[in-house]
Structures are given as structure tokens and as C-alpha cells.
Amino acid sequence: MGVQVWVMLGSFYCFDIPAALHNSLKAHFSNLGDGEFEIYFSGLYSVYSFANIFLPFLTGSSYKMRDKYGDRPALLFTVFLTILGQLIFTYGVHLHSFLVMYLGRIILGWGIESVYPTQNSFVSPFFKNDYLVFESQNYSRVLQQA
User: Fold this and answer.
1) What is the rounded CA–CA span in Å between residue 41 and residue 25?
2) For a disulfide at 109, which of 11, 48, 79, 114, Cβ 3.0-4.6 Å?
3) How many angstroms separate the CA atoms of 99 and 89, rounded?
């Protein structure tokens, strides 16, 4: 359960990083006007959500991978997508390119939104009957407090 919490804390950190860096990004993209920057900045969350439209079609391949190879490779794959998306986002900031940052956020969205169900599938054999609900609630409580 501890590993599960750490993976999701890292995922939530990656999801919220643009909000934490709003002022720094605004200074970094000082060549853009305030209104233009805000439009591009809000697009960082829009493309993350936009990825969720196609997620059921794309995640089907990760669920097939989970059925064929098991939960551990599927979980590693989704965590890899999360890390890859964050690295691409960071590289986009370095290049001063919102387009590259958007690409990173799309991949990040696919990874983060696939991590949670894959983790539940991974953890469920260890907790039987009512204990699975107990574990899930404790897990959610820890994440909400973070």
C-alpha cells in the first residue's frame, strides 16, 4: 500500500506542477502578453483532460497487456508514461514551446489516468472481502490529505 501511495503522490505532483509554477512560467514566457499566456496556460489542463476522451480506446491496449503479461508490467508501463510525459513537458519548458508542453501533458494524462485502475487491479489480490474497501478508503484518505 505504501508503494501505491507514493506512485499516486508523484502522479498528483506531476498533474499540479503547472499551477505551482504559474508565476515562474509567466516570467519564462515574458514574450507573450498576459492574456495570450493565460490562454496557453489554461490549455495545459485542457489537453490533459482532452486525452481522457480517447483514453478508453487507448487504454484497452494497456488492459490487454495487463491480461497477457500481468499487473506488474502494466503498472510499470503506465508509470513510465507518466514519467515520459513529465520529461517531455519539462523539455517543452526548456525549449519555450507550448506545443511540446502540450504533447507532454497529453502523455502525462494518459499515464496518470491509467495508473489508478491498474494499481487497484495490482493490489486487490492482497486484500480480501471487506479489507479491500478498508485499504481503498485509507489510500484515498492519505491522498486527499496530501
Assistant:
1) 9
2) 48
3) 9
